[in-house]
Amino acid sequence: MTDHDVLADLEARGLVQECIDRDGLAARMAEGPITLYFGCDPTADSLHVGNLLGLLVLRRFHDAGHVPIALAGGATGMIGDPSGRSQERNLLDEATLSANVAAIKAQIARVVGDDVMLVDNRDWTGDIGLLDFLRDVGKHVTVNTMLGRESVKNRLASEHGISYTEFSYMLLQANDFLLLEQRHGCQLQIGGSDQWGNMLGGVDLIRRVNGRPAWALGWPLLTAPDGTKLGKTTGARIWLDPDKTSPYQFFQHWMQTDDRQVHQFLAQFTLLPMAEIEAVVTAHLAEPGRREGQRRLAREATSLVHGPAQAAAAEEASAILFGAPVADASIEALDAVAREVPVLDATADDLAAGLDLVDLLARPGSLAASKGEARRAVDQGGVYVNGARADGNRQVNAEDTLHGRYVVLRRGKKSVALLRIAVSTSPSST
């Protein structure tokens, strides 16, 4: 991909809402690789799908030969960005922020690449004195300019107002851009359109202090169906951390994409070429009921965040939970299913003696509230063991285990539980 193609590709994907001097930026990129940065404040111990949009834009520049910097905002995270918010964030202590920074750095590296430069703005902000900051940064920015930023105007008009702490956020972010420009030659900041005012502040500060050009590029905000910003503090709960949103749940999030957004999300949340995306969408629209567009989206996005193996397991687990045959299910897929459904534990000795199916179904947290209910479900032909309909005398034994580890129990079309056999930890005989 050539330098010109990067901007054109982003525009084709709907990822350029605002750009300072687009022609000037294209000319600069034509001269050679440009250093750019994207920042995430560590207000939680995981990034979310809104951040993923930015990480993938950074990845697109990286893949095109440019030099990405990913910034974890340990300092700005202590302040709180007022952009897109109606009230002030709860401030976090340093220990929590440090843990959050470590967590999101790992996620950034996994998506963008192990060779991406990762920085924390506490490293240069923590030791700056107040008078030095006011002299070196504050004197270059007028209050009139700060009051004109949309994020500030919105907060001033709200019932909560804005604290001086949050009012100063844009100065800290502008200083980040300035120092990255001075230390690493960073000339481009990228971010969501809610950051546009803050990004403009950094561009202006670099020009005033160093007399050199800088650029900013912003993409449209990812929004929920009601038009609200999709972020971790405004209702979105789709995290990049597998312990907060499992790979299966992440996969299912994309499978539930509205048909009208399949093209947009394939363009923005995958690295597929646009020509291939057009072909996928054309085939999808011909038979939307098959949901092949959503399936391709889910597969690609989950692979980017959790890796191809986890994506494959999540896709297979989805098929199992929606009634696909389980005889050839992989152990990875069954492990994924075990994270999503009730799990009943048993030992190899239990299986050797045989376990009554009705008793299993009636265990607390299983698939029936009582033995009577379990018996009726079996007698009505609505219970399955590893996909095979069970009768009233069914015993579960060692021959039923898959990979020597699991038995899949199903009641009706959608209710699933797993019987999990404990793995022996006894030492091998010698």
Provide the fold topology.
Blueprint (H helix, E strand, L loop, with lengths): L2 H10 L5 E2 L2 H9 L4 E6 L8 H15 L3 E6 L3 H4 L14 H19 L4 E4 L1 H4 L4 H7 L6 H6 L1 H8 L6 H4 L1 H16 L1 E7 L3 H15 L4 E5 L27 H9 L6 H8 L4 H13 L5 H15 L1 H14 L9 H8 L4 E4 L1 H6 L1 E2 H5 L9 H9 L3 E3 L2 E2 L5 E2 L9 E6 L3 E7 L9
Helix pairs in contact: 11-12, 13-16, 13-17, 14-15, 14-16, 15-16, 16-17, 17-18
Task: Report on this structure.
The chain is of the alpha/beta class and 430 residues long. It folds into 3 domains: 3-219, Rossmann fold, CATH 3.40.50.620; 247-328, Tyrosyl-Transfer RNA Synthetase (Orthogonal Bundle), CATH 1.10.240; 343-421, Structural Genomics Hypothetical 15.5 Kd Protein In mrcA-pckA Intergenic Region, Chain A (Roll), CATH 3.10.290.10. Helix content is 47%, strand content 13%. The protein contains 21 helices and 13 strands. The strands form 3 sheets. A 6-stranded mixed β-sheet has the order 1-6-5-2-3-4, with helices on both faces. It has a 5-stranded mixed β-sheet with strand order 7-13-12-9-10. Strand 5, helix 12 and strand 6 (215-219) form a beta-alpha-beta unit. Helix 14 (262-269) packs parallel to helix 16. The chain is elongated, with a radius of gyration of 26 Å. The relative contact order is 0.10.
